[in-house]
Amino acid sequence: MNDLISECAALLEKVKQKKPLVHHITNYVTVNDCANITLAIGASPVMADAIEEAADIAAIASAVVLNIGTLNNRTVESMLAAGGSANERGIPVIFDPVGAGASAFRNETARRLLSEVRMDVIRGNISEIRSVAGLSSNTKGVDASEADTFENAAQIARELASKRGCVVVITGAVDIISDGARTAEIRNGHSDMSRVTGTGCMCTSLIGSLCGAAGDAFHGAAAAVLCMGVAGELAHEKAGADGSGSFRNAVIDAVSGMDADILKARGKIDEIS
Amino acid sequence: MNDLISECAALLEKVKQKKPLVHHITNYVTVNDCANITLAIGASPVMADAIEEAADIAAIASAVVLNIGTLNNRTVESMLAAGGSANERGIPVIFDPVGAGASAFRNETARRLLSEVRMDVIRGNISEIRSVAGLSSNTKGVDASEADTFENAAQIARELASKRGCVVVITGAVDIISDGARTAEIRNGHSDMSRVTGTGCMCTSLIGSLCGAAGDAFHGAAAAVLCMGVAGELAHEKAGADGSGSFRNAVIDAVSGMDADILKARGKIDEIS
Amino acid sequence: MNDLISECAALLEKVKQKKPLVHHITNYVTVNDCANITLAIGASPVMADAIEEAADIAAIASAVVLNIGTLNNRTVESMLAAGGSANERGIPVIFDPVGAGASAFRNETARRLLSEVRMDVIRGNISEIRSVAGLSSNTKGVDASEADTFENAAQIARELASKRGCVVVITGAVDIISDGARTAEIRNGHSDMSRVTGTGCMCTSLIGSLCGAAGDAFHGAAAAVLCMGVAGELAHEKAGADGSGSFRNAVIDAVSGMDADILKARGKIDEIS
After folding, report:
1. ipTM of the shown complex
2. How many CB pairs under 8 A join B and C?
């Protein structure tokens, strides 16, 4: 067992003690799953997207999650307000550029959010991260394009992290977490996760939850991605044969039962640079 | 078995016969659960928040639920229109002041809704009800603050009910229902209910469903809270060990299977004043 | 086994190969179920309702689903833009007139969408389709009215389909699919489906998924309705006794496990004119 996995396991205990409030401005497709997984890991979700209160709610939160899955011009303004409020107070901001690359509006919004808000963590699939990094991207909708291979993913994450001074997470068959200096890869998870909506969004909510308890965003992000990957495996074992409706619930079940021992026994995380 | 539980059991049968239409203007986090639990108890949900139709839909409903979980300036206007339309026609209005106390915007909106709409029932956790009652509140997000003890909850409910001429429900480890003259407490439920999002919102939807069939809002609210509490216990027995994803479905399962006999066998409701 | 069922079974394989992108502008009540059932059948959902991107996202999709369940003036404009963009490119548009007949705003919006967008398929319950067809309707909320009998449903579907040059689907105890020239009826499904929210919306999402892979909207719609009906039966057998929460997941489970053999073994579809 390496140091990184010990760190992740310790953070899991810490989130349950601290119960950080995680403010989400997120899409209406997967918002219920995001709230439930935030509760399952031991944090407390609050979803509030009105411009009149976005900055106020962010100010009392331990982490802010900005997810552009179903963005519109009203909620983009609220994201900017919440992000700015969090930045002023040193509260970590997690950005999920859902569907970046799929439309000019998404690209422009991602660019604007990244320019006006200092993000602590950016999480996306390879297509979304390529788009955010200014590389060619074949984003089609909100799922990663098969044309965007995972080749060089670690390098892309490392460079984007260095450029932006944040942690970059690319989730896929293998997950990459980098803050520019440190890069880790996680070999947990299961392909069933791509058959239900929201596993990416839920992973981002877990990053918010763990970063809301962690002093270090690299460790917070790593612990969250590890929990999600292990939960995907446990859910497959429990409900993979039942179908995707049951699998989805089993993911939340697995997160609600996750503890340091499970993480240590099943986690496959390694620093690769 | 006391009179109150007989009354609740009778109402449960009545809602299945009448199938009241329950108009919700509610948050997008738990709205699916609210619709499903409304169907599960035997009522018919309709969610409609456009200002162009809010008053019209309220006018054909048997109850109106106003829930400010993810309020914004557009939907607040629709809540006012729906509430006013219901008031004109004597249709019961149920108010769920989600997160009252967490931001100035929520406080102001709750104040405005209470000033412009005559509410028949207000349901919240202790932090939210303290906020609505003008008492000091430690609301942090949408979950009750541990700093807001349940001490004097019955008195707070009674006084707020008397002042506003409505039924006040405070849900928690013990649930309180008061219309100022009559006060009941319910000792059902399970702590697992706080590990999934929306159990409060779902309780409010059940209050709407039962009040849509009941002549008396005190009995309607009591029956709804009793159903929710018993459902929480049954769900814990069925799925508590599986995790919070399964527990959530089991709550809806339990409500869909609820009948007068189960309520009479398991309900723990007593008038306390 | 008739030709129609062979056609449906073949389309089921085709959707899994093509993985069509299905752009939804839909309600926030059942949107998660719509996304999950779209993934379950093998297609890829994208929900995007901002006017700034509605036409762009529709342009890269294989089908567009417009569902007015929780319409508002912002999203209606986006529906018009997405529908227009799809029409220009010959991308099929599926219309779900949720609650048509329940308010003047819904009626007017349905009328406007039908007048400005060429729909390839319209799916509703008997009350909604009667309203869209300009017949007397007893719509109360979003569930079919018991006062609107299914008598003459095939004739209503056939006439509306001929008038509009599209496929009309009426779902209920028996499902009718007509393009004016061909009319089929499906005798699958289970009454449990009316005890959970969103089975109509999910059916519409399946129509979008299948029409996104089919050359012929009549076959696409028939295959989708058949899948939904068979899934309802399988879900009842698996989870009917557990309650409506479990049933809902079992529907998605059943769709995720649906294949040509199941469809051929259980499908009850017949051309009736």
Report:
1. 0.96
2. 103
